[in-house]
Specification:
heterodimer; A: mainly alpha; Tetracycline Repressor, domain 2; 9 helices; 71% helix; B: mainly alpha; 64% helix
Chain lengths: 180, 156
């Protein structure tokens, strides 16, 4: 398997992510047809839709791991790390538009997702310590707010590239919408 | 006919699909090179690919112990024979239309994967090449299966 070349599997997983994101009940036959391969080709690798969905989840989690590493949440200047993280997550979410709720079906995937969220929570505490964001809000609010803004604006600003969308997300997150 | 004129373009695609079963002898291009723009050729290729995909799904389902390469080659030949006019149009225009060639790459990938000549972990570009060689072996007679007439063979 070559890591530097697009694999046939990548096309299947991207198609599956898009269709399952739109409708979690999408069949393997529909995914295979959209990807332009016989359904038997997909079944040779994935026993059923759940196995395919788990593969999509883990591929998305792999991509998030790369984003977390590139953002250097523990060492880069906080504002820089925040922007890198948001830009990377927007790109990943657009490639794999699967709702986090669906990821809970797979225990291992859910565990990995919680681990990644803990890394982000740790980064948020660092951002509070360095006074980039407020520390007087109830636990988890800041974290949840960031994810909500990312999810909403990543969808609404589809015609913007991830970098431009990240500019708006970070600005909205840090400054809100007030003019005062 | 241009892309800014979608209704006649749709009619042309529909007309060719309706007559795709026809065995009437037609010009090498099937409908005249000047009449079919890249967008229509890509639309025709997409319809052929869909037809092929449905046929492959069905054929592999009931393949039993028959080798997949044989099942896929036979299915391609059968469908190409049933859609002779459509195949003539596509074959006649593939050299001049880069968009049609790009669209056809999906068919090559479909063939290679369905026949088991490539795996999901393989590089897509290499899979297309493998599929193209397999397709050519069916089309140009290296395969033991019946070969549909091509514009080239007819002109020879």
């Amino acid at each position: 398997m070559r890591a530097d070349a697009a694999r046939n599997l990548d096309a299947i997983l991207l198609t599956a992510a898009r269709l399952l994101g739109e409708d979690p009940g999408t069949s393997i036959t529909a995914i295979a047809a959209e990807a332009g391969v016989s359904r038997h080709v997909v079944y040779r690798r994935f026993e059923n839709r759940e196995a395919l969905r788990d593969a999509v989840f883990h591929t998305k989690l792999d991509a998030v791991d790369v984003v977390l590493g590139d953002a250097r949440l523990d060492s880069a200047p906080v504002a820089v790390a925040l922007h890198r993280f948001v830009e990377g997550i927007i790109a990943v979410d657009r490639h794999y538009p699967i709702e986090p709720d669906q990821m809970r079906c797979d225990d291992e995937g859910h565990g990995r997702m919680l681990e990644q969220r803990e890394q982000v929570a740790t980064f948020m505490r660092r951002a509070m310590d360095e006074r980039l964001i407020r520390s007087d809000l109830p636990d988890g609010i800041v974290h949840a707010l960031l994810y909500q803004i990312i999810a909403m604006l990543a969808r609404q600003l589809r015609d913007h590239d991830p970098a431009r969308t990240a500019d708006i997300v970070v600005d909205t997150f840090l400054r809100g919408v007030s003019q005062i | 006919m241009g892309r800014d004129d979608p209704a006649p373009a749709r009619e042309l695609v529909t007309m060719i699909m309706r007559k795709s079963h026809s065995t009437d002898r037609v010009s090498a291009s099937g409908a005249g090179d000047g009449d079919i723009d890249d967008g229509n050729l890509v639309a025709l290729q997409a319809r052929w690919a869909t037809t092929l995909l449905i046929g492959l799904d069905r054929a592999i389902e009931f393949a039993g112990t028959t080798p997949l390469t044989e099942v896929v080659a036979r299915t391609w030949c059968t469908l190409a024979g049933e859609h002779e006019r459509l195949r003539r149009v596509l074959e006649a225009n593939i050299e001049r239309s880069s968009q049609l060639r790009t669209a056809t790459d999906l068919e090559y990938r479909m063939l290679a994967l369905a026949a088991g000549l490539a795996d999901l972990d393989d590089d897509m570009r290499l899979t297309v090449q493998v599929g193209q060689r397999f397709h050519d072996s069916i089309l140009f007679g290296d395969s033991p299966h019946p070969v549909v007439p091509t514009p080239q063979s007819e002109m020879a």
